[in-house]
UniProtKB/TrEMBL annotation:
This is Amidohydrolase. Residues 45-539 form the Amidohydrolase domain. It comes from the Bacteria. Gene3D superfamilies: 3.10.310.70, Metal-dependent hydrolases, Urease, subunit C, domain 1. Residues 157-177 are annotated as: Disordered. The lineage of its organism: Bacteria, Pseudomonadati, Pseudomonadota, Betaproteobacteria, Burkholderiales.
Amino acid sequence: MPRIHYANVCAFCGRTGRPFLTDFTVEDGFFIDAEKPIADGDEIRTVDMRGAFVMPAFLDVHAHPEGLAMTLSAVPCTPPEVRSIDDLVAALKKSPNALSGEGWIDGWGYDESLLAEKRSPTRTDLDRVSTTQPVWIRRSDYHSAVVNSKALELAGIDRNTPDPEGGAFGRDEDGNPDGRLIELGAVNYVEARARPPKTFEKDVESILKLGDHYLHHGILVTADMMAHRRAPGQTEPLALYRAAENRGLPVEMNLYAVWTGGENPEGMEDFSDDEKQGAIRYAGVKLFADGSISGRTAAVRNPYVLPEGAPEPEFPSGMMTLTEPVFRAAMAFARRNSVQCAIHIMGDRSIDAVLDWLSTESPWLSDVPSVRLEHVSMMRPDQLEKMLALPIRPALTTQIIFPFAEWRSYHAALTQKDFSVCYAVKTLSEKVEAMALSSDAPCTTWSDTDDIFVSLEAAVTRRDSDGGYFNPSEAVSIGTALSLYTSRAALVMPERGIVGAIEPGARANFITLSANPFMIAPSKLRDLRVTGVWKDGKRLLG
């Protein structure tokens, strides 16, 4: 590959505090020092970029690609199309499977706080869609769902069925299941017993559709944070993604296997060396300490706010879905396999518990943090100081898209005092270097969850989707926000070489944007678009 000199650019190198570049040089897929001697006979080609804004390609280090692929063929149950349960029923009735009368009728993204009725749909509502076909809609947080009577029947759930571990079946006043699947334990119960097994070829085709999506979003590195490894009746995700890679999927991916070993450190099969190598690989194991704030299942210190006249909820302070023995077993597995342990942890009560458990753990990885804490939605100042004093220094991810898209849920669920500590991006980023903003796509009530420019605007302005403010003192500069999607995101999980930066020795993964984000109004950041993508020096888009 010839040496290419990209001239006439305005380039953000991915690291704050560094000057913008006016040119850079690429050779053999890497950024190099322009003064590096060139071999006799080799050529140097100059490309005039005509003043384009250039930056490192994005890393979205917490996402769910399989779920994202599913949204491409399921019914969106989000605003602006769906604002009531009647709207939701009407939208589901128009799905291809509903019209054909065959298969499951799938939807995604509902949030009861955004529906006119201010309640969750139930099986009775979904029976209006169909009584002969199973109907399944995922909640926006992807931790809970609602199904109709046919789906409950297929799963063998009735009033005598006990709640599964790590979840609960919603029930009506007579104790009968009402179709709500509360948290992952209940969702997985129905999925395992009722949904037909997927075929490998259809799954590969579904994942391949994400290729253009990722390129147009400027994302070349991502993660599957909920890989179900060799689950009965399910496709092995590593094989699925590697097959898609062989057929042209351009994105690299770290997989985090959901821990299924219980309290036994050897309760899950060890990773092989091959499974931990390559562009698609296992990088860790995943635990769930609690649920979500918008779903009122995150474990919080103070009970959730109740609407006037509302009945006492089943879990007034959310749900801890992790015990210390399970935590210790998963940590031992991660240590033995030399992979990370990632922990979903939203509420401050679950953060309290996990920080206590981490206090006796020491790191086992030298190149990246041994532990990742995911979301940390309500990490308070006392908890941050406690974390910084631990022998093990976790990496952090957080998702500013949640309060942006789900502000109604957050305001309805939390007191103003509790809401004021949510998503403290500025405070966290000033104290923790290995930190990333990420999307958790598709797990929120926004139609394009991993549109990074929306998250950038929310981080810089602290405005929600209806124009209100949330904790403006936690706003960060555009440079910091971009670094949390590039160079600093690259510190959160293992990478192949140096990514997220334009500097000698780094892989030449870079993008061009439709405008310079440093030169436009913060309220216009969401209007930005990716106009070109290069991976390892090869142009893939634009």
